[in-house]
C-alpha cells in the first residue's frame, strides 16, 4: 500500500514539475505570438528576394511601384517568403511553373494581405497552375480558377494574366481567388485565424446582403452580375474593384469602400500606409 501511495505521490510530483516548466513556456510563447507575430513576420525571419525574382517584380508589378521604398522592401521579402513556403505545381499541359508565374502569383497574394503582415494563407500550401481554362470534374464545367478547402489555390495562367493586362476593368482572377483564400483563411482555425476585424466584417456582411439583393433585382449598380451569386463571390468581386478602380468604387459606394479598406487595412487611394483609413 505504501509503495502504491509513494508511486502516486511521485507521479503527481513529476506532473506538477512538468506543468510548472512547460506552462510558463507556452504562456510566454503565446504572449510573444499574440503581440509580436505581425512585427516578427514583417521585419524578421524574412529573407531578401532573389535577384532574378526582383527583376520580374520591378518589370511587371504595378502595385509594387506605388509603394514607398520601405514598403517595397517589405513587399519584396514577403513575396520571397510566399514563394519559399508554397508548393507550385504545373497542371494540364503546363511543363513547369516559371519564375514569372511564381512571382506574380505571390505578388497578388501579398498585395491583398499587405495590411496584414502575418498572413500568408497558411492553409493553402499548394498552388496548382493550368496553362488555360481547365475542366473541373466536380463542377462539370470549365474553370478559370478556384480555391479549394483541401488547401489548394488553382489558377489558369491565361486568365491570371488577362486580369493584369487590363488593370482598370475591375476583373482580376489572381486577386479574386486570393480574396476567397483570405476569407477562408480567416475562418479556418490555425495560426492565422480571425485576423479580420470582427465588427467590420459584420457590417460588411450586412452591406453584402443589401448589394446582392440589388444585383439580383437588376437595379443599376456598380458591381458585375457575378457578384450576386453569393456573399463569397460578392467579397471577391469587391476586392477586384477595390484595387483596380478604387476612385470609382469610393464614389459609387463610399461606405462599402471604407469597410473594405478597414478589413484589408490598406487604402489604394491614400498611399499604402497602415491604418490610414478615411
Ligand atoms: Zn469566385
Question: Please, could you describe this protein's structure?
Answer:
It is a single chain. With 278 residues, the chain is of the alpha/beta class. It is 58% helix and 9% strand. A hairpin with a 4-residue loop joins strand 3 and strand 4. Helix 2 (51-60) crosses helix 5 (99-112) and helix 10 crosses helix 11. The site of zinc ion (ZN) has 4 residues, from helix 7 and helix 9.
Question: Can you give me a brief rundown of this structure?
Answer:
This protein has 278 residues and is an alpha/beta fold. 58% of the residues lie in helices and 9% in strands.
Write the layout of secondary structure elements.
Elements: H1 2-43, H2 51-60, H3 62-65, H4 69-85, E1 87-90, H5 99-112, E2 126-130, E3 134-136, E4 141-143, E5 145-148, E6 152-156, H6 157-165, H7 173-187, H8 198-216, H9 231-244, H10 246-252, H11 254-264
Parallel strand pairs: 1-2, 2-6
Antiparallel strand pairs: 3-4, 5-6
Bound molecules: zinc ion.
Zinc ion binds at residues 176, 180, 233, 236.
Amino acid at each position: 500500500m505504501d509503495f502504491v501511495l509513494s508511486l502516486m505521490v511521485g507521479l503527481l510530483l513529476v506532473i506538477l514539475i512538468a506543468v510548472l516548466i512547460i506552462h510558463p513556456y507556452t504562456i510566454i510563447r503565446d504572449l510573444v505570438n499574440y503581440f509580436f507575430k505581425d512585427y516578427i513576420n514583417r521585419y524578421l525571419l524574412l529573407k531578401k528576394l532573389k535577384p532574378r525574382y526582383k527583376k520580374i517584380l520591378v518589370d511587371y508589378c504595378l502595385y509594387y511601384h506605388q509603394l514607398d521604398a520601405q514598403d517595397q522592401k517589405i513587399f519584396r521579402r514577403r513575396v520571397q517568403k510566399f514563394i519559399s513556403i508554397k508548393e507550385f505545381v504545373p497542371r494540364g499541359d503546363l511543363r513547369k511553373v516559371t519564375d514569372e508565374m511564381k512571382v506574380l502569383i505571390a505578388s497578388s497574394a501579398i498585395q491583398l494581405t499587405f495590411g496584414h503582415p502575418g498572413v500568408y494563407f497558411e492553409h493553402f500550401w499548394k498552388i496548382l497552375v493550368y496553362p488555360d481554362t481547365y475542366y473541373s470534374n466536380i463542377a462539370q464545367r470549365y474553370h478559370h480558377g478556384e480555391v479549394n478547402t483541401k488547401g489548394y489555390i488553382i489558377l489558369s495562367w491565361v486568365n491570371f494574366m488577362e486580369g493584369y493586362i487590363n488593370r482598370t476593368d475591375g476583373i482580376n482572377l489572381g486577386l479574386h481567388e486570393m480574396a476567397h483564400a483570405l476569407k477562408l483563411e480567416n475562418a479556418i482555425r490555425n495560426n492565422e485565424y480571425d485576423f479580420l476585424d470582427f465588427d467590420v466584417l459584420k457590417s460588411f456582411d450586412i452591406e453584402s446582403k443589401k448589394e446582392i439583393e440589388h444585383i439580383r433585382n437588376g437595379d443599376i449598380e456598380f458591381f458585375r452580375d457575378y457578384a450576386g451569386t453569393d456573399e463569397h463571390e460578392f467579397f471577391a468581386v469587391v476586392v477586384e474593384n477595390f484595387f483596380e478602380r478604387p476612385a470609382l468604387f469610393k464614389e459609387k459606394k463610399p461606405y462599402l469602400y471604407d469597410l473594405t479598406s478597414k478589413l484589408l487595412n490598406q487604402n489604394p487611394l491614400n498611399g499604402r500606409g497602415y491604418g490610414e483609413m478615411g
